[in-house]
Design goal:
Elements: H1 2-8, H2 11-68, H3 74-80, H4 82-97, E1 102-107, E2 112-116, H5 127-136, E3 141-147, E4 150-159, E5 167-174, H6 176-211, H7 213-226, H8 242-297, H9 304-335, E6 342-346, H10 347-357, E7 366-369, E8 376-380, H11 381-398, E9 404-411, E10 414-421, H12 455-465, E11 469-474, E12 480-487
Parallel strand pairs: 7-9
Antiparallel strand pairs: 1-2, 1-5, 3-4, 4-5, 6-8, 9-10, 10-12, 11-12
Bound molecules: adenosine-5'-diphosphate.
C-alpha cells in the first residue's frame, strides 16, 4: 500500500494523473454533446419519417374526397369525417412504419374530433403547441411526453387537405426504439471512454517515464557525487529542452566541484609540505644550538677560546632562525591576503637608499642606471624594501663579488626595476623552480651561504600583492637578471591655479 502511495506521489504519476484529470471532463463534454446530437437527430429523423407517412395519408384523404364528389372541399371533408381522417392517417402511417400509431384529430377550434385506433388514450399536445401548429399552417411540432406506458414521441401536423387547414392531426409513437438506440450509445460511449482513459493512463505513464528518464539519471549521478565519486557525470546527450539544459548545468557544476575539491586538496597538500619544510628548516639550527649547548656543558665553557667559538656559532644559528621565522611570517601574511598599505613614493630614491645601506658581501662594482627624475610607484613601501633587499642579498650571495647593474625604467604604465649580475647564473634544470617555496638550486644547496629557499618566493608573492610581477632570466655562466614590475602611481591632476 505504501509502495502504491509512493509510486502515485512520483512526478511520473502526478503528471499522468493531471493529464487524465484534464482529459476526463473533455471526454464527458464530448460524450454529452454526441449523445444530445444523436438524440436530436434520431427524433428529427423520426419526425421526418412521420411527415412522409402523413403526406401519404394526405394523398389518401384527397383521393377519398375526390371519390365522394368534387363539391366537397378539404375543409368540409375534414369537418364531416374526422374519424375517417384519423383512421386513414393511423392505418397509412402504421402500414408504412410497421408501428402502431395513435392519431388524434383536432378541428380548427382545437377540440378533439376523433381518436384512432378507437378506444386508445394517447397523450395529447398542450393547447399552446396545437395553436402554434394551426397558426403556422404548414410546419409540424414534436414533443416527448412521458406516459404510464413509457415515453412517447408526439407530433402535430396541420391538416391542409384540399384548399385549407381544417385542424391538427396528432401522431404519437413509442420512444422505445429511439431510447434503445440511445441506451446502446451510452454503453458504447462509456466503454469507449473507459478504454480511452485506460489507454491514456498507460501511454501517459510510458511517455512521461521516457521523458523523465534523464531526471532519473541525474538523480543517480547526484547520489554518486554525494557518495564521493566526484568523476560521476550524467553525460546526457545535449539537447535544447529544459531537461537537457539542466543536465548540462549539472555536469558543469560537477566539473566545478571536482576542480574546487582538487584545488582544495592541492592547497592542503601544499600547506602540509610547507609545514614539513618549515619544521625541517627550523630543526637544523635548533639541533646545532643544542649541540653547542651540550659541548659547553661537557666542559668547553671553561675554556675561553672554545666558549667564544661556541657562542659565535650559536649566535649565527639563532640569526638564521630569526631570518627564517621572519620569512615564514611574511609568507603567512601573504597567504592570508593581509591588507597592504600602498602609498605613492619615488622608487628611485627608495632603491638608492637600500643600495647605499648595502648587505654583507656587496661587490666592488655596482652600477645604477635609473629612470630620469622621480619614478613614482603605488605600492607598500615595506614590501618594496623586502623585494629589493632579497634580490640584493641573492646577487651578493650567489654571484659573490660579481658586478651588479641596477636599472629602473618606465614601461607601458609600469615601473620596471631590474638587477643583472655577472655571476655564474642558474642551471636550466633549476630555473623553472626558483620561485617555489624552499627550493634551493642544486649547486647552492650544500653551500654555507645558501638560504632556506624562501627569498624569491617572497619576492614573487610581494610583487603580485602590489599588483605587479617578477621574472627571472639566467643561463649558466652568463649571469642572472631579475625584473620586477610595480604599478606606476597615477599622475596627479594639474594644481588648481587661477
Ligand atoms: P634563498 O632564500 O635560499 O636564497 P631563493 O628563493 O632566493 O632562495 O633562491 C632560490 C635559488 O635560486 C637559490 O638557491 C639559488 O640557487 C638560485 N638563485 C637565486 N638568485 C640567484 C642569483 N642571483 N644567481 C644565481 N642563482 C640564484
Amino acid at each position: 500500500m505504501r509502495r502504491i502511495g509512493h509510486a502515485l506521489a512520483s512526478l511520473r504519476w502526478r503528471l499522468t494523473l493531471t493529464f487524465i484529470a484534464l482529459l476526463l471532463p473533455l471526454l464527458v463534454l464530448l460524450a454529452g454533446y454526441q449523445f444530445l446530437t444523436l438524440r436530436a437527430s434520431l427524433i428529427s429523423n423520426r419526425v421526418g419519417e412521420l411527415q412522409a407517412d402523413f403526406n401519404s395519408a394526405r394523398r389518401l384523404i384527397t383521393s377519398k374526397e375526390k371519390a365522394l364528389g368534387a363539391a366537397i372541399t378539404g375543409a368540409r371533408f375534414c369537418a364531416a369525417h374526422p374519424l375517417a381522417v384519423g383512421e386513414i392517417v393511423a392505418s397509412a402511417v402504421s402500414a408504412v412504419t410497421g408501428q402502431t400509431v395513435q392519431v388524434v384529430v383536432y378541428n380548427s377550434g382545437l377540440t378533439q374530433e376523433a381518436v384512432a385506433p378507437a378506444g386508445a388514450s394517447p397523450p395529447t399536445l398542450d393547447s399552446a403547441t396545437l395553436e402554434g401548429v394551426v397558426s403556422r399552417g404548414t410546419r409540424s411540432a414534436a414533443k416527448q411526453i412521458t406516459t404510464n406506458s413509457g415515453d412517447q414521441l408526439v407530433v402535430g401536423f396541420p391538416i391542409a387537405a384540399g384548399t385549407g387547414a381544417c385542424g391538427v392531426a396528432q401522431l404519437s409513437l413509442s420512444m422505445t426504439p429511439i431510447t434503445n438506440v440511445l441506451h446502446d450509445e451510452i454503453l458504447l460511449i462509456t466503454a469507449g471512454g473507459l478504454v480511452m482513459v485506460i489507454l491514456a493512463t498507460v501511454l501517459g505513464v510510458m511517455l512521461t517515464g521516457r521523458t523523465l528518464r534523464p531526471m532519473r539519471r541525474l538523480t543517480a549521478t547526484a547520489e554518486q557525487l554525494a557518495a564521493g565519486d566526484l568523476a560521476a557525470r550524467s553525460r546526457l546527450a545535449p539537447s535544447n529542452d529544459e531537461v537537457g539544459q539542466l543536465a548540462s548545468s549539472f555536469d558543469h557544476m560537477a566539473d566545478r566541484i571536482q576542480e574546487a575539491f582538487a584545488a582544495q586538496q592541492d592547497s592542503e597538500a601544499q600547506v602540509r609540505r610547507f609545514i614539513a619544510d618549515a619544521s625541517h628548516e627550523l630543526r637544523t639550527p635548533l639541533t646545532a644550538l643544542k649541540g653547542y649547548i651540550d659541548v659547553l656543558r661537557m666542559g668547553a665553557a671553561r675554556e675561553p677560546a672554545a666558549l667564544d667559538a661556541a657562542l659565535g656559532a650559536m649566535s649565527n644559528e639563532s640569526e638564521r632562525m630569526r631570518v627564517l621565522v621572519l620569512d615564514l611570517l611574511t609568507l603567512a601574511r601573504l597567504d592570508a591576503h593581509r591588507e597592504s598599505h600602498p602609498e605613492d613614493f619615488d622608487v628611485n630614491a627608495a632603491l638608492n637608499t637600500l643600495l647605499n645601506e648595502g648587505v654583507p658581501g656587496m661587490p666592488a662594482i655596482l652600477e645604477r642606471s635609473f629612470a630620469p627624475g622621480a619614478l613614482f610607484v603605488r605600492a607598500d613601501r615595506d614590501a618594496v624594501s623586502t623585494i629589493v633587499r632579497n634580490l640584493l642579498v641573492n646577487a651578493c650571495k650567489y654571484a659573490h663579488g660579481a658586478a651588479q647593474h641596477w636599472t629602473t625604467t618606465m614601461e607601458a604604465g609600469w615601473a620596471k626595476i631590474e638587477v643583472r649580475d655577472e655571476g655564474l647564473g642558474i642551471p636550466a634544470a633549476d630555473l623553472p623552480h626558483v620561485f617555489e617555496r624552499f627550493y634551493r638550486g642544486e649547486k647552492t644547496r650544500a653551500r654555507e651561504e645558501g638560504g632556506s629557499g624562501l627569498g624569491l618566493s617572497i619576492v614573487q608573492g610581494l610583487a603580485r600583492a602590489q599588483g605587479g610581477d617578477v621574472a627571472i632570466r639566467s643561463a649558466e655562466g652568463a649571469g642572472t637578471t631579475v625584473t620586477v614590475w610595480l604599478p606606476l602611481a597615477p599622475v596627479p591632476p594639474p594644481p588648481p591655479i587661477d
